[in-house]
Amino acid sequence: MPRVLLTAFKPYDRWRANASWLALMELTRELPPAADIVTRLYPVDYAEVKERLAADLQEGFDFALHLGQAPGAGRLELEKIGVNVQGPAGAEGAEPPPLVEGGPVAYESSLPLARWAAMLRREAIPAQVSYHAGTYLCNAALYLTHHLSAVHGYRTQAAFIHLPLDVTQTAQEQPGAPSLPAAVSARAVRLILEQLGAVEPSAPLA
């Protein structure tokens, strides 16, 4: 049975809720029995996310699936690449700092994201593979999971899944924006979790 770290983020900026946590709460009503799932709610803070990820990954997971919200997105976006960038360009276009000084430019998820996206579309859930997770904490979670696994020899394979806003968020804060009910996003994540048993295990990166 695969052991899975499943994370979501707290609200940030003007958002009073986070679609990732709403979906995760919905998912916990009926967790897939074929996986040993550990859930975490992360703060929207680089230093704390890095510290908590480092601690969590020591527990030994086969997979880490990170969830986050993507305002303006109308479908799930399965992120393929995490880049070594922390935040946008600074004043006058100055280069943003790296997440890890001297770390690789990017990491690419080895998970079958295209197959999962196609599976979700067959289930009438809009989904696609994305090749840029942005430069904020969503990207950081994906990059840092890969980097910590590489540095410490963990077997953890990782992906980041951006979720559309929940319908309650758009009704309250952004009328007319693309959205999906949290129950639909939760069902999508559940379907992906059910596929993990078929993924070829990763050897520890000793």
Task: Summarize the structure in words.
By secondary structure, the protein is an alpha/beta fold. It has a single domain, classed as Aminopeptidase, CATH 3.40.630. The protein is built from six helices and eight strands. It has helices at 19-27, 46-57, 113-122, 137-152, 167-173, 182-195; strands at 3-9, 36-42, 63-69, 76-79, 81-83, 106-108, 127-130, 157-163. Strand 1, helix 1 and strand 2 form a beta-alpha-beta unit. Helix 1 (19-27) crosses helix 6 and helix 2 (46-57) packs parallel to helix 4. It is globular. 42% of the residues are buried.
Q: How does the SSE layout of this entry go?
A:
Layout: E1 3-9, H1 19-27, E2 36-42, H2 46-57, E3 63-69, E4 76-79, E5 81-83, E6 106-108, H3 113-122, E7 127-130, H4 137-152, E8 157-163, H5 167-173, H6 182-195
Parallel strand pairs: 1-2, 1-3, 3-8, 4-7
Antiparallel strand pairs: 4-8, 5-6
Helix pairs in contact: 1-6, 2-4
* Biggest sheet layout: 6 strands, mixed
What is the count of structural domains?
1
The CATH class assignment is Alpha Beta
Average pLDDT for all residues: 93
CATH architecture: 3-Layer(aba) Sandwich
Tally of strands: 8
Order of helical and strand elements: EHEHEEEEHEHEHH
Query: Helical content, roughly?
Result: 25-40%
* Strand arrangement in the largest pleated sheet: 2-1-3-8-4-7
Uncertain parts: none
Please work out how many helical segments DSSP would assign.
6
From the 3D structure, determine the CATH topology: Aminopeptidase
In angstroms, what separates the terminal alpha carbons?
A: 23 Å
**CATH superfamily (homologous) name:** Peptidase C15, pyroglutamyl peptidase I-like
Rg calculated over all Cα atoms: 16 Å
**What does the overall shape look like?**
globular
Tell me the β content: 15-25%
Structural class: alpha/beta
